[in-house]
Design a protein that fits this description.
single chain; mainly alpha
């Protein structure tokens, strides 16, 4: 069994990766396409590389970058949503799914 650490900033990495991916909002991607695009972007550029590309786009094209980042954040949060509330701990998580805990890092067995 492998341990994975999920930080509260992971959602920012997902949004950055979706921002720099080839998917467009007009494509109306489903959850599977979004996850694949995020994984491909992270593999290609790494987390920091995605952030660097986002920063470059905001410098070069701020008028379009704002709308794309809003879209990327909204879609990433929809795709990687997890249950909330007291029942969350009783729900069995699927491997590779994010853990919603914005207070601290958590270890999750995957």
């Amino acid at each position: 069994m492998q341990l994975a650490i999920y930080h509260h900033v992971t959602s920012a990495v997902w949004a950055d990766a979706l921002f720099v991916s080839v998917i467009q909002g007009s494509d109306k991607p489903d959850a599977v396409q979004v996850r694949k695009a995020i994984a491909a972007a992270v593999r290609a550029y790494g987390g920091r590389g995605c952030a660097q590309r986002v920063a470059q786009e905001f410098g070069d094209h701020p008028e379009t970058a704002v709308a794309r980042m809003r879209w990327a954040r909204a879609v990433a949060s929809e795709v990687f949503v997890s249950p909330s509330g007291p029942a969350q701990d009783s729900v069995r998580r699927r491997p590779g799914q994010p853990v919603a805990d914005s207070r601290a890092s958590r270890l999750v067995r995957t």
